[in-house]
Write a structure and sequence with these properties.
- This protein has helices spanning 17-23, 73-86, 112-117, 125-131, 142-151, 167-181, 185-194, 244-257, 263-269, 338-348; strands at 5-8, 34-40, 43-50, 52-54, 59-60, 67-68, 203-204, 218-221, 224-227, 240-242, 288-289, 294-298, 301-309, 314-320, 325-331, 363-367, 372-379, 382-388, 396-402, 408-410, 413-417, 423-428, 434-438.
- By secondary structure, it is an alpha+beta fold.
- It folds into two domains: 70-348, 3-Layer(aba) Sandwich (Beta-lactamase); 363-438, Lipocalin, CATH 2.40.128.
- The strands form five sheets. The chain has an eight-stranded antiparallel sheet with strand order 1-3-2-15-14-13-12-11, sandwiched between helices. An eight-stranded antiparallel barrel has the order 16-17-18-19-20-21-22-23.
- Helix 2 (73-86) runs parallel beside helix 6 (167-181).
- The protein is globular and about 65 Å long.
- Residues 28-342 form the Beta-lactamase-related domain.
């Protein structure tokens, strides 16, 4: 059986063959896949789909298929809050304990804006559930997640002093929307966002599984694809069930309709958050963070975007305001990199995306803290790093590849370079940045 591929002409423009090629999986006769859409001036100008929403029943993906949105949900959670802020019923400067008295009084006030911009230091709710022993967070309830958040005696850092992406912060933001509006969060989002825009298929989960035509998520296992619908059934940080065609209705409102995306709401959503010092929040990749949206320049273009990732779902919704274009990729397979795929889709559609990797310095660098030496040499586009340390019987070689922000990465390890190439900074996980100074003449 051949893998189904759907190409639809929309607004008198057919999807380029290369878009379909990007989504195709010639290695498998039957596989999960992706849907993609390209938009210009608020209208969908091309779409393509490849793969199955349900492998067992051979149901193909299409524009009406519902996907678990994962963190794509955050912009809709922020949007729900923004509608209340625009109506004067909520403020970004409000102390969250005004609405969530169960939350402890921390060393500094946590505001609604800090939750929205990931600067509150609220611990990640999904991580807390896993640390508490729940391996499958898809079995967790909203009350269980909230209870863990309310039990935290401290924040991860002083609120307002740093940026740290937190699913817990967005769960609390959704709970505030629920308490201020007086309606269950899912119901308020339906009334305030989905219904006015005609997004009839989309909804936030409220303790239930996906509805009709919802795609299963899949991961490869032992040469075949197996179902992994292991996502939480409550909303805020995730929980959105969304289709490509409904995102088209949302995109039209952003560009043309402004029924929900009003100027007042847009101002809230598109303003990058700031730390207590006044410095603009940096998401670690050189972009700011607004209302559930990464905002800034990437690969030579100005982007407003957010991804979504669960075990078996990978998505990106990217808007290019200067070009009045947008691109969506929704995938129900966990083995593909959505950012790479959508970048390919954009380039196939004529968007010039620059290669911004910075040339790495060569030579030898030493860290006294690690008692280790890194020898750097470029090999084509890769950076070969030879690591010498008293902990090693012989030097070990690692290969780093360029990242979008000009750094080089090898798995979870990231390397950046100082001005004048006099030092490098290496970070991994929670280690923080460790400085290596250039060795001149064999001495540091």
């Amino acid at each position: 059986m051949m893998l189904p591929t759907l190409l639809s002409a929309v607004a008198a423009s057919a999807a380029p063959a290369s878009m379909a090629d990007i989504l195709a999986d010639p290695a498998h006769a039957a596989a999960p896949g992706c849907v993609a859409g390209a938009f210009r001036d608020g209208a969908m100008v091309a779409q393509a789909a490849s793969g199955y929403a349900d492998l067992a029943d051979q149901i193909p993906l299409d524009g009406e298929t519902l996907f678990y949105g994962a963190s794509l949900s955050k912009q809709f959670t922020a949007l729900a809050a923004a509608t209340l802020i625009a109506d004067g019923r909520l403020s970004l400067d409000d102390d969250v304990r005004k609405y969530l008295p169960e939350l402890p009084a921390y060393r500094a006030t946590v505001t609604v804006g800090m939750l929205m911009h990931h600067s509150a230091g609220i611990r990640d709710s999904l991580s807390l559930l896993r640390l508490a022993g729940m391996a499958d967070v898809g079995r967790a309830s909203k009350d269980q997640a909230l209870r863990l958040l309310f039990r935290q005696s401290d924040t991860a850092f002083v609120p307002g002093t740093s940026y740290s992406y937190s699913n817990g912060g967005y769960l609390l933001l959704a709970e505030i929307v629920e308490r201020v509006s007086g309606r269950p969060f899912a119901d308020y989002a339906r009334r305030a966002i989905f219904a006015p825009l005609g997004m009839k298929r989309s909804y936030f989960l409220d303790g239930k599984a996906g509805g009709p035509r919802a795609a299963h998520g899949y991961v490869p296992d032992a040469g075949k694809f197996v179902v992994r619908d292991t996502f939480p059934r409550f909303s805020g940080s995730g929980g959105l069930m969304i289709s490509l065609n409904d995102l088209a209705r949302f995109e039209r409102d952003i560009e043309r309709g402004h029924r929900v995306w009003t100027p007042a709401v847009a101002k809230i959503m598109l303003a990058p958050g700031r730390l207590a010092t006044g410095a603009r929040i940096d998401d670690g990749k050189g972009m700011g963070y607004g209302g559930g949206l990464h905002i800034g320049r990437r690969r030579g273009q100005w982007f407003v975007q957010h991804g979504g990732a669960a075990e078996a779902f990978k998505h990106v919704y990217a808007r290019l305001p200067e070009r009045h274009e947008a691109y969506v990729l929704l995938c129900n397979r966990g083995d593909w990199n959505a950012q790479e795929k959508i970048d390919q889709v954009m380039m196939a559609s004529g968007v010039p995306l620059a290669t911004v990797a910075r040339a790495a310095p060569s030579g030898r660098f030493r860290s006294r803290e690690l008692d280790a030496e890194y020898s750097l040499a470029m090999d084509g586009t890769q950076l070969t790093v030879t690591i010498s340390s008293p902990l090693l019987a012989s030097p070990r070689v690692e290969r780093f590849t360029p990242a979008e922000d000009g750094s080089y990465v090898a798995g979870p390890t990231r390397m950046t370079f100082g001005d004048g190439s006099d030092h490098i900074v290496v970070a991994r996980g929670g280690s923080g940045g460790i400085r290596f100074s250039r060795i001149e003449g064999g001495q540091d």
